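TASK: fixed-backbone design
INPUT:
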């Protein structure tokens, strides 16, 4: 992704491996400050995933792959490292997929760093393919709604939901992106808007609760990412996705999920079995350093919700746009 800096433009990824260390953009600091953090141990990588230094299912998967490579380089117990990394967050399938993929590659004798590099490069390639399959859905003059951040920051580079948007824009079509702010962590306002600004893509940020109002005024297409898509096509994504899907159906607006197959968990039958992460109450109540909730208020902070497959018009994958029926017949890789 191209990022504007004081000296011009810089090409940067959400994370990469350099001099024996995993380097990540600290996404908690964006858009105020673009800073990198460096990691040398698998335990520190697991902590970074938990703290959301990096986030978004495919970036979490890549971080996990590099975390396993660091564990192998340091001669750590790989089963322990795998368990620690897998315990970082429960919902994104990519985390589990990446750790298992690394185990199978290294068992077959592939070098751990080479395997992790290949894993991260494959994600970016898949995102490029998602962009080319999804871009024809976006026409000149469209208003496209998205939620959370399913862009380059969430996927090493390029994005899933943002991939068709980037591609359609680069092909010369002009349209408007509505990015919902995504309470409580504000990935839509802080990360998606930042990415779109870097590329000069027209957009507006709005509160999550404005989705219905704006959809009724005229939204042509909704594209979101996913943390886990299960065998019947139900999927988990950032809290607030489900409302958008129901509203889109009510208002006859096409609703697409963009995700690589590493996000597909075909061993889980339906969305009811997806584990939803609950995060700390403070994420919600503390705003700019001040706890704004009354003392003693109970707080619920589920980080994801599940949207049933019946609300989804199609799944934009690296293999093309699939229906829910096609998903169950898809093989893993
Ligand atoms: O809690 P986050 O920021 O990791 O949640 C991210 C999302 O919900 C994304 O939409 C999803 O991971 C897809 S990223 C391509």
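OUTPUT:
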């Amino acid at each position: 992704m191209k990022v504007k800096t004081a000296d011009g433009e810089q090409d940067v990824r959400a994370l990469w491996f350099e001099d024996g260390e995993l380097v990540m953009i600290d996404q908690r600091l964006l858009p105020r400050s673009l800073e990198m953090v460096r990691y040398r141990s698998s335990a520190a990588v697991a902590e970074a995933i938990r703290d959301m230094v990096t986030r978004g299912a495919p970036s979490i998967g890549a971080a996990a792959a590099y975390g396993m490579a660091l564990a192998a380089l340091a001669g750590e117990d790989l089963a322990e490292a795998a368990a620690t990394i897998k315990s970082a967050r429960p919902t994104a399938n990519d985390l589990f997929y990446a750790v298992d993929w690394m185990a199978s590659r290294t068992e077959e004798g592939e070098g751990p760093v080479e395997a992790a590099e290949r894993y991260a490069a494959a994600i970016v390639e898949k995102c490029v393919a998602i962009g080319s399959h999804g871009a024809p859905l976006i026409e000149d003059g469209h208003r496209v709604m998205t939620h959370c951040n399913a862009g380059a920051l969430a996927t090493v580079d390029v994005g899933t939901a943002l991939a068709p948007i980037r591609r359609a824009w680069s092909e010369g079509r002009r349209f408007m992106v509505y990015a919902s702010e995504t309470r409580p962590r504000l990935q839509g306002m802080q990360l998606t808007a930042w990415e779109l600004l870097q590329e000069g893509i027209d957009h507006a940020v709005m509160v999550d609760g404005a989705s219905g109002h704006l959809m009724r005024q005229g939204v042509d297409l909704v594209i979101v990412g996913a943390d886990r898509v299960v065998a019947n096509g139900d999927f988990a994504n950032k809290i607030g996705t489900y409302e958008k899907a129901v509203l889109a159906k009510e208002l006859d607006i096409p609703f697409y999920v963009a995700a690589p197959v590493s996000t597909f968990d075909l061993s889980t039958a339906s969305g009811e079995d997806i584990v939803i992460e609950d995060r700390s109450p403070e994420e919600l109540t503390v705003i700019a350093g001040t706890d704004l909730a009354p003392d003693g208020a109970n707080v619920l902070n589920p980080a994801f919700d599940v949207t049933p497959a019946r609300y989804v018009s199609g799944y934009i994958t690296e293999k093309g746009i699939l229906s829910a029926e096609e998903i169950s017949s898809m093989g893993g890789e």
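COMMENT: The radius of gyration is 19 Å.
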